[in-house]
Amino acid sequence: MLHLPLATLNLHWFHQLPEWQFCAITIAVFVGVGVGGQMAIRPLVRRWFREGDYNEVVGYYLSAFGVLYGITLGLISVGAWENYGDVEGKVSQEAAAVGSLYRNVDCYPEPIRTELTSLLRDYTREVIDVSWPEMQRGIVPRGGHPLVLRFQKSLVAFEPRTEGQKALHSESLYRFNQVIEARRLRVDCVEGRLPTILWVVVLAGSFMSFVLTWLLVVENRLLHDLLSAIMAILLGLLIFFLVTLDLPFQGQHSVGPDSLELVYQQVMQPRP
Questions:
Q1: How far apart are CA 217 and CA 45, in angstroms?
Q2: Which of the four pLDDT bands, split at 50, 70 and 90, describes residue 1?
Q3: How many CB atoms lie within 10 A of CB 272?
Q4: Which are the contacts of 25, defined by CB distance < 8 A and separation ≥ 6?
Q5: Is the pLDDT of residue 153 over 70?
């Protein structure tokens, strides 16, 4: 129930913005909360804490919290980066499987060779031109399935006559299964994202970092505000980094269909 509001609506909307604009908005929000909250609570802190070594105590807690939160945020960032790279790898594997399958069916006798190669070219163009824009909008692609079924029906119906054709046909069936598996993994990645509970931990940790800095009583207010702003900028950049990687098929630096496009241009051109 908690998964939809934060992870689906807001992040999809953010990815529609230009990346520089989204980054600027994120930093502005964090700086506004960090420095604005500090200015608002500063008179109360000075009224509550007038004596004692409270700055030293808050400093201890701030240091310990910074270590724990830094480790947590670092691990989440590494996980998001690895997931992004894993999605890129899956797309490359799909492109390699499609290219290998095309080379196999291109060696079939006529008329099935023309039928299978045409279907595979149409399927590849459909993925590049139709499915990919849908994935970039956060939509799970539904197209291409009829082409897959037609290709499967024609491939399975082929009856090899020679030993060479039998070996080639067996390899083609294996490559076709690889294409189907790779397609399923790619489609599943469209809705893959960090769980909402992790976003709650990340955002709550950022807010608690601000609260600890608000509890410091510093005579030089400008320096205090400047240091809080620097920390807010760093936190904003880290959150921006996480959001950018969280949905690998969306945004300006999203995973693109370059591997499939390269296979189409280099492998799938019709014979002269």
A1: 7
A2: very low
A3: 3
A4: 17
A5: yes
Judge contact between 264 and 128, C-beta under 8 A.
Answer: yes
- The token pair at 78 is 């590494």
Contact call for residues 120 and 102 (beta carbons, < 8 A)? yes
Q: Are 77 and 238 in contact (CB under 8 A)?
A: yes
pLDDT digits (tens, 9 = 90+) for 41-93: 888 777 776 655 677 788 888 888 888 888 888 888 888 888 888 888 889 99
Domain boundaries, the chain: 28-266
CA distances from 201 to 4, 192, 197 (A): 16, 18, 6
Count CA atoms closer than 13 A to 51's CA, side-chain side: 0
pLDDT for 30: 92
Q: Is 95 exposed, middle or buried (0-12, 13-18, 19+ CB in 10 A)?
A: buried
